[in-house]
């Protein structure tokens, strides 16, 4: 009988003990009591800081690598404009159609390529306070404009016909305008550099 009473006494005390344990968990922790989680070691904290620093350096290295690649691409493009290397030319200059258009223009003499020098001469003559020279300058200006227009029309018609014969299945859109804009530049200043001589058939 004594054993049964002791067992019941333990069972009645057990819920109270559990309740006390739950109640105590909500009480504020004493300052001198141990923390609920261990403080990270110094080596762990240092490794975390090191990983953050490595991430920052990786971003800097990636940005530096991108700048270097961009400079290398620009240098390749500059060399291609001088040599005519199709692999690294800008998109507007790539392709057999654009190359033929350039060669077609570069193999001929065009009045438009001397437009800027002639315009400077005409401007100087028009500034001289002599009526006869001003009249000559005006006449020269009209003659130059008419000759450039006629030369551009003839060049455009011939180029369009040649492109249709050589590249019937290629996209020829904009090639004639591209070539006519090239005629306005002096031959030695054209980019990509001319790859054919005057009189040489493209």
UniProtKB/TrEMBL annotation:
Record InterPro entries: DUF3043
Keywords in UniProt for this one?
Answer: Membrane, Transmembrane, Transmembrane helix
The Polar residues compositionally biased stretches are: 44-57
State the organism named in the record: Streptomyces erythrogriseus
**Full protein name:** DUF3043 domain-containing protein
Task: Indicate, by first and last residue, each region the UniProt record lists as having compositional bias (Basic and acidic residues).
Answer: 26-35, 58-79
Which Pfam families does this chain map to? DUF3043 (PF11241)
Q: Where are the transmembrane segments?
A: 111-130, 136-157
Q: Report the domain of life of the source organism.
A: Bacteria
Which intervals of the chain are annotated as region Disordered? 1-79
């Amino acid at each position: 009988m004594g054993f049964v009473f002791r067992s019941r006494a333990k069972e009645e005390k057990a819920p109270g003990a559990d309740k006390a344990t739950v109640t105590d968990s909500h009480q504020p922790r004493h300052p001198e009591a141990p923390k609920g989680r261990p403080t990270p070691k110094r080596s762990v904290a240092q490794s975390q800081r090191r990983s953050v620093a490595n991430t920052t350096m990786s971003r800097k290295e990636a940005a530096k690598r991108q700048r270097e690649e961009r400079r290398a691409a620009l240098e390749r493009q500059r060399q291609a404009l001088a040599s005519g290397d199709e692999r690294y030319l800008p998109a507007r200059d790539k392709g057999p159609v654009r190359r033929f258009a350039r060669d077609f223009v570069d193999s001929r003499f065009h009045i438009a390529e001397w437009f800027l020098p002639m315009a400077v001469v005409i401007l100087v003559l028009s500034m001289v306070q002599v009526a006869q020279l001003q009249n000559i300058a005006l006449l020269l200006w009209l003659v130059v404009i008419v000759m450039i227009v006629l030369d551009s029309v003839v060049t455009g018609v011939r180029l369009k016909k040649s492109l249709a014969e050589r590249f019937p299945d290629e996209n020829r859109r904009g090639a004639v305008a591209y070539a006519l804009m090239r005629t306005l530049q002096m031959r030695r200043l054209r980019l990509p550099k001319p790859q054919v001589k005057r009189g040489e058939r493209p």
